[in-house]
Amino acid sequence: MFAYIKHGDNQQFLINMNCCVFQLLYYIRNKVGLPKTDTIDLCDESGTMKLFFLMKPPGEYAIKFLTARNTYYICRVKRGSPGTRLQNAYLAFVPLLKTPTPELIDALRSQCDMLEKSRLKTLKMQEAAQKVASAESSMKLPSKSGEDRATGKGPFHKTRADFLGKRDRQRVNKITKKQH
């Protein structure tokens, strides 16, 4: 099974789809002369991204995701600059074509925007979960003996008054009586 890959100024080549996605992307990078550090993906003629760069097991076979004898375009995935606040942001999906159609660019832009919104939503949910977890852990700290200090349950619960001497307790009692 094979498919067509278009790039540049209407240049194209064939790919064998009966290989893993990782090998396919490696082959495409070498064929077009892209550096290994560039993140690339494929989109079909309508602009639907295949999102191979998000695949957790890159060993999946490309034949599961691509249709035989169809044409696909190479797209560069633009991310934020390393070391900045936007380093993981999806900035753009750029087709490696000399003259891409406006429809293709619009489709890629809308998919990039949706992916970025999804990434931001996931980040906010993770931050909220961390805040809840830290608030819960600061509200209820277990003691060494396993008792709950907030409720005073447990055999060894002592308050500050338990550690005061007889004279100190008398002073505290006098102070509290004067205040009332």
Automatic annotation (TrEMBL):
It comes from Rhinolophus ferrumequinum (Greater horseshoe bat). This is Chromosome X open reading frame 65. Residues 131-180 are annotated as: Disordered. One of its GO terms (biological process) is transcription by RNA polymerase II. It holds the Pfam family Il2rg. Transmembrane segments: none annotated. InterPro entries: CXorf65-like. Signal peptide: none annotated. GO terms for molecular function: RNA polymerase II cis-regulatory region sequence-specific DNA binding. Residues 159-171 have a biased composition (Basic and acidic residues).
